[in-house]
Amino acid sequence: MVKAKAEITISRIIDIDKVTRYYLLQSSTATAPSKPTSNPPDGNWKTTEPSYTSGSTNTLYFVDLTVMTNGSFSYSAVSKSSSYEAAKEAWNKANNAQNTANNAAKTATNYLKGSEDGLVIGNMTDEILGSNVLIDPDSVNIRDGDTILAKYSEKKIELGLNSEDAVIELCGGVGLITSQVVEESEFSTGITRALSIESDYIQMNKARIIELDTNTLYGTNADGEGQQASSYITLNSGKSSNGLHNSTFIIGGLVYEDNLDAFISGDISKLDGVLLTTRVTGADKSTDITISHSSTDASVDYEGMTIESCDVVRFQSNINMEYCIGVGVGGGGVNRGIHDTWEDHWMLYCDQNDMYFQAPKTSKIKPYYRAGDSIQLYYQGAGFATSDGKHVVFTLPINKPIDASNVVASSVSGFIGRSNGKYTHGSTSSTYVKPASYEAVINGNAVRVSMNFNNNTNVTNNAAIGVTWSGKITFS
Fold first, then answer.
1. Phi-psi category of residue 405: left, alpha or beta, with phi > 0 → left and psi -120 to 50 → alpha
2. For the chain, how many structural domains are there in total?
3. Which of 22, 142, 235, 378 could cross-link with 210 by S-S, CB 3.0 to 4.6 Å?
4. Which residues pair with 188 in a beta bridge?
């Protein structure tokens, strides 16, 4: 006997029935909407997407409703519509561009005006046109009303056109260019105006040649003809015809008809070295002062200063014409130096061996000590005791340079010493003693003296001693 059993299982599968998108358009300032909770959603949610209206500032939100086959449903998160936001942004940009164009057109109308003279740029809303710019086919003109203050053209710039009192300020006030009244003087007839350039510091750089030249007529001679005169400055640097670098300058002036001139010139070159020349010419005579140095050590030419003159070279006071000195060489070439022509003696000169000074009313002196010179001295100062108190050492300052290698000290009156309240080595307040011997050495511009005694009365070794010394030193 066979028994059988059968079972039937019935199941239901849940699937998505439909998806619906809802839209909500509201003010951008309102709070963003929450996710709906009912089907269909409450409020102003619509299934139709609204189009963007020009000028609208609203915000479009959307949400997706998913309905299942068993009737259940769910909503996605609420989001902004990117296409609506893009349309709003595009409209805003277009609107701003239009506003800019409208404002530009308004500005052009207020500040630009065509005329028969050219294009005028200025504030056309004013009853009277003030500062403005006129652009014509040939130039750009800066104006005050119809008055041109400055003009810029292809080959010409004009500043301060209609005012002699105009001030041109440069670089934030660092420099000024003005017009100034020049009163009548030996260089100008009548009152005239001059261009004035003012600055604490004026610099011109990177120019190969700079020339300043005046060539004018002033004054008259007996025939009524003009007398021509000129002043000039020339600066030049670069390469000469031999291809070497050089630098030159000339500062001078002249009067042509009388053959009068004066100049200072400098010439610096690798080939010729350095040459500085001053020349004065008049009445068919000239005086030259030349300072030169060669560019090489092998030069046999004289280097230094040369004065060439047809007269004695002298220096004279412009207050008292009697006071003057001459520079030159005395008779026979023995005295060479500066001569006081009023007192008729040499002030600074040298002979074959020495150099001397001599003031107008004094005797001659030498500005140094040399071998063979002796000095008699009275010295009061300080020293010290050494060698068990039998040697007293002190230093004599010398007030002139010493041109010698050795020195010898000797007594005139001798020595008075005082230490620790007592007189030393047998001296008293009025009694000098003479040491048995001396030692002396030159130390720069001083002489170190050591007096050697046979006693050490009242002396503490290495103690300080007050020194009164009457003696003589002789250089060798």
1. alpha
2. 5
3. 235
4. 185
